[in-house]
Amino acid sequence: MYEQIARNRRDSWLLAGLVVAILAALGFAIGYAAVGGTQGGLGLLGVFGVVAILWSVVGYYSGDRMVLAVSGARRVTHADEPQLFNVVEEMTIAAGLSRAPAVYVLEDAAPNAFATGRDPEHASVAVTRGLLERLDREQLQGVVAHEMSHVRNYDVRLQTLVGVLVGMIALIADFFLRWSFWGGAGRRRGGGSGGGQGQAVFMIVALVLAVLAPLAAYAVQFAVSRRREYLADASAVELTRNPLGLARALHTIASDPRPLRSANRATAHLYIANPLKKAKEATGIFDTHPPIRQRIAVLLEMAHVGPEALT
Amino acid sequence: MIAIIVLIVVVVVIVAVLAGMYNSLVKRRNQVDNSWSQIEVQLKRRHDLIPNLVEAVKDYMSYEQETLTNVTNARAAAIDAGRRGPEAQAEAENVLTGTLKSLFAVAENYPELKANQNVIQLQEELTSTENKIAFARQFYNDSVLTYNNKIQMFPSNLIAGMFNFTTRQFFEAPESERAVPVVDLR
Q: Does A207 share its domain with A293?
């Protein structure tokens, strides 16, 4: 299992690198075609690099507050939710973190949970009211352990940064497609100075890239997210030493038909289970989560029990 | 000339490797100390909660004087054992855990007790404190394992011997206590 964790970690950093590579290729191709030549390509690549860094810094420092605000989460204290608060503290101790994350509750009947923040010292864990109502203490512990693993493994930071870059790729590609459509390309041809054959070829390359890059970037982002879900399940078991608790929690979450109202495409990958649509058996490349049945099966195998233990 | 440069490089590399091993030993030892203090914080918290619990239930459970006395005595013994190192303390704390379990088992027979809001609250706090002790112990034992391995395994054992790093004791849990304690009054 520990080998699996190590491989997961390596793979997700490789995937994050791939997103950076897509951004760089897009920048170079658009620069070459629209600004002109290798210099234009490198110039625009540099501009994109600077913007990506600035953007990431903003996301790094305020991404968690934005996510919490968008989802309508409310901060709670020990007096409001003693059991939830205690369970979060228990998992903080199990993970050996020096500081417990802030605890938030979403007033929504659909059972779900997510974590956000930039590092274990600045992290938040949020659960829905439905989760608190439907899960027993052991199940709640499993879910909180899963979220604590995202915090401890710095998944929250990786997801924020990858999310920022993917958003930027989508925006740039969109902008370029509009620009070339509304005659940007024609004006360049009218200028006529230099460029020529190479630039025309690069124009086509840039257009194709602009169409494909966002799709590829989303696919990669979701692949990162799927790997991290398995990893967090495994780490959660390392904390609680109780795979059945999390398996039973996922079973309860999966059997609830209600979608989470405050979740959207941008925040869906943060949740412990996909808040938007129903569980499927197979994984598609645009899924943010691995099939929940598969995750439950892995956990049951760890517990050495059959599916009858879920009920 | 080249020989001298090679010699210097070799010496620098060796010193760097030794320093790295030393620092990693110090880091591990600090983690062990730190996780031990976390256990102590939680044990202290349990010691503080028990008088409140005994106070809250004693009017309902006047026929169970013996159970209550056992808990109070075990608490005193555990506080006392705290001065005699991890092994003695682990033993005394395990006895205390046992007496608390029988207290909650006996409490099953008193419906008014199960409805008392104050008792329910204390029970959640005690359950959580039990869990925290268990998880702190789990983390402590993991830290001790990594630390002891480093001290005993080549080559860091050479550094450990030179600078007097000594192995630490585990905080043992009895077999029956591996599972999350179930003290459900409802």
A: no
Q: How long a stretch of residues is chain A?
A: 311
How many structural domains compose chain A? 2
Name the DSSP letter for residue A309.
G
Strands (E), chain A: 74-75, 102-106, 113-119, 122-128
Question: Is A86–B125 a contact, with Cβ atoms under 8 angstroms apart?
Answer: yes
Instruction: Classify residue A261: in a domain, yes or no.
Output: yes
Output the furthest CA–CA distance in chain B (Å, rounded).
91
Q: Provide the number of CB pairs (under 8 Å) joining chain A to chain B.
A: 39
Q: What percent of chain A has pLDDT over 90?
A: 30
Q: Which residues partner with A74 through β-bridges?
A: A105
Which CATH number covers residue A122? Answer: 3.30.2010.10
Do A190 and A146 reside in the same domain of the chain? no
Separation CA A292–CA A276 (nearest Å): 13
Position A165 in a domain:
no
Of A89, A90, A121, A147, catalytic: A147
Quick: pLDDT tens for B106-132: 888 888 887 888 888 888 898 899 899
Judge: B35–A96 Cβ closer than 8 Å, yes or no.
yes
What domains does chain B contain, in order, with CATH numbers?
A: 2-177 (1.20.1440.20)
3-class secondary-structure state, position A121 = coil
Domain containing A177 equals 2-59+173-213
A144-173: per-residue pLDDT in tens? 999 999 998 888 877 777 777 787 788 888
Choose between A193 and A261: higher pLDDT: A261
**Would you give the end-to-end CA distance of chain A in angstroms?**
26
| Whether residue A279 sits in one domain with residue A177 | no
